[in-house]
């Protein structure tokens, strides 16, 4: 325990249950890590502004030391009060991706200035807005999506066509970005260089942590073992 400096945990299917509730035993474990001087942070594909609220929602006595958002494209260092961004999709890439996905019926959207900028409003988009606590803004045209660089663009589709989309994406690899399924009805595109591990390494570099001293944990039992 004395050599453990940093714990970064994914959220869904890791820290929280299916209803996104933090279990009391997990909260207790996180508090023990903090009491023992271990830096604690979370990582997710969601934006920073949404993730930073979870410390209060979960009833923790402290703010997260580090928050990795947008699959590693965004990083908040609470120790030094600094925000960083890495490898966002270029504007022309976003335009290209929209055209690439044109053969499939979808409702595409991006996180844009604390809002959800979407092609249209449907039940799934309303659910996403509720989950993320964000207002939906309907794009006037596709050009709205590539006004500026963005960490990712997402395409909500019906579950029955997802296998066809996955095969289509796999058959047309791109040197700049990757397409990947994150839900049965959600395909995302992001710069192929970005991942949560990249942001983790940046945390270590900026805070003089040895790489072998950070520990990304995925299962609550693993966290419990490190406390014994």
TrEMBL record:
Keywords: Hydrolase. GO terms for cellular component: cytosol. One of its GO terms (molecular function) is magnesium ion binding. InterPro entries: HAD-like_sf, HAD-SF_hydro_IIB, HAD_sf. NCBIfam families: HAD-SF-IIB (TIGR01484). PANTHER family: HAD SUPERFAMILY HYDROLASE-LIKE, TYPE 3, PHOSPHOSERINE PHOSPHATASE. This is Predicted hydrolases of the HAD superfamily. It comes from Faecalitalea cylindroides T2-87.
């Amino acid at each position: 325990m004395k050599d453990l400096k940093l714990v970064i945990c994914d959220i869904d299917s890791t820290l929280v249950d299916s209803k996104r509730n933090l279990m009391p035993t997990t909260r207790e474990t996180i508090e023990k890590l903090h009491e023992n001087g271990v830096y604690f942070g979370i990582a997710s594909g969601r934006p920073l502004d949404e993730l930073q609220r979870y410390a209060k929602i979960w009833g923790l006595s402290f703010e997260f030391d580090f928050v990795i958002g947008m699959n590693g494209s965004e990083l908040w260092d609470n120790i030094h009060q600094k925000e960083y961004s890495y490898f966002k999709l270029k504007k022309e890439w976003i335009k290209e991706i929209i055209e690439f996905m044109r053969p499939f019926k979808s409702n595409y959207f991006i996180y844009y200035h604390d809002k959800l900028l979407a092609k249209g409003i449907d039940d799934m988009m309303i659910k996403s807005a509720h989950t993320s606590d964000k207002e939906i803004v309907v794009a006037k045209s596709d050009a709205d999506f590539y006004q500026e660089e963005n960490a990712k663009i997402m395409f909500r589709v019906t579950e029955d066509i997802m296998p066809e989309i996955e095969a289509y994406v796999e058959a047309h690899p791109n040197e700049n970005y990757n397409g990947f399924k994150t839900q049965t009805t959600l395909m995302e595109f992001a710069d192929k260089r970005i991942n949560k591990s990249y942001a983790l390494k940046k945390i270590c570099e900026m805070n003089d942590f040895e790489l072998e001293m950070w520990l990304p944990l995925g299962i609550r039992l693993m966290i419990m073992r490190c406390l014994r």
